[in-house]
Amino acid sequence: MMRLFLLLLFSLPALATEVVRWEQIPLPVALHVGQERRVEVGKPVRIGYPAGLEGKVRLQSAGGNVFLLAHAPFPPTRIQLRDTQSGELILLDIQASENPSALEPIALSYDAPAPAGKQQPAPASDEPLPVLLVRYAAQNLYAPLRTVEALPGVTPTPTGLNKQITTLLPQQPVAATPLAAWKADNATVTAIRLQNRSGQRIDLDPRELQGQFIAAAFQHDWLGPHGAAEDTTVVYLVTQGSAARALLPEPKP
């Protein structure tokens, strides 16, 4: 699954390890210049990287961990982590920016393989419904259809929103456009595209979202300047009932 920046109704301790599930889709990893970040891979790996990163970042692998230290800002760039025992590849899309805030370590988690020649039934998930809904929506938008995990009880539903939303992030120069929605029981996840309309980078903070949400998740936690390849992302809103009742009303013309 793609990495998501999820806000639920609890807070995490500062610098807690961020657990990210590897599901054969490149994982974005943010770096801050001058600050080393550790990725707990859990297995010995060799690092492959393009020549364009020479001198911009230090990459080290030791004891099942990868240590990344950016020396200069650079745009999203893909690196490869190859398991030295199985040969499996793990792909990371790393990018660096000037930012003094601290970044937590990342730990990768993996699906346990089923025994050879034996089909194991999928166990019932003990993850909260908001997490399952966000993952399902993200896979429907970004992952190949054959890889979308079935989620019993989920059905598509109209978003019930205007074509453009101005009240979701009113303090940021972004255009918000509803894409799709799915519901399960009385919970709904709504995917909304966010596009930067300014010439400056925008760091996205879920605390700035206006409305009554059970959970909210950004596909990426920043937007590049308008016109850049990174100027657009998606926010997933999990609400009780329709998102139309959870968002602030649009101003009257």
UniProtKB/TrEMBL annotation:
One protein family per Pfam: DUF3438
Keyword Signal: yes
Domain of life: Bacteria
Signal peptide: 1-16
Keywords associated with the record: Signal
Official protein name in the record: TIGR03749 family integrating conjugative element protein
Species name: Salmonella enterica
Lineage, opening ranks: Bacteria, Pseudomonadati, Pseudomonadota, Gammaproteobacteria, Enterobacterales
